[in-house]
Every structure is written in C-alpha cells, then in structure tokens.
Amino acid sequence: MSPKKFKKLSKLRKRLDKLDDLLIKLVKRRTNIVNEVLKLKDFKNQIVDNKRIKVILSRIRKKSIKNKIDPKVTRRIWINMIRAYIDYERRNFSKK
Fold first, then answer.
1. What mean pLDDT do residues 50-67 have?
2. Closest of 37, 39, 61, 59 to residue 49, by C-alpha
3. Is the whole-model pTM more than 0.70?
C-alpha cells in the first residue's frame, strides 16, 4: 500500500473509531431502556415477542431501503442485537 493510501486509510479508521464511540453511547442508552422494559415483565416467557421482532425487522428493512443501505447488512445487525438483548434479559430476569 502506498504511503498516500495508508494515510487515507488511517484517517478513515479514525472516523470509524469515532462512530464506534457514538454507537457505544447509544448501546448504553438502549440497554437502560431494555432494563426498564425488563422490570415490567412478570414471567421469563415474556422476554421473546416474535410479533414485535417481525415488526422491528420490517421497519428496519424499509428504513434501510429508504436510506440506501443494504438491507441484508442492517437485518443481520438487528437480528444479532435482538438476540444479544434476549440473552441479556434472560440472564438478568431473576436479578430484578
């Protein structure tokens, strides 16, 4: 890689790092809301709401297309995030 390309790559990576920092803050905010939602659930079987998941994924697909983002990428991101929060809720359900 040429020095010019390497310099450009380094700058782009720094921009990605800054976006990652913002995403971390958003994940924290989302986690706080998930904790509030979890407090409202009386039974562990209330953690997974397949209808809600379908609505979320449909909404994200539409927004992705509207914003010219590959919907396969956003779908994968959201599915993984949903799975991670389902796991989080299951692990923290008894602790509430």
1. 98
2. 37
3. yes
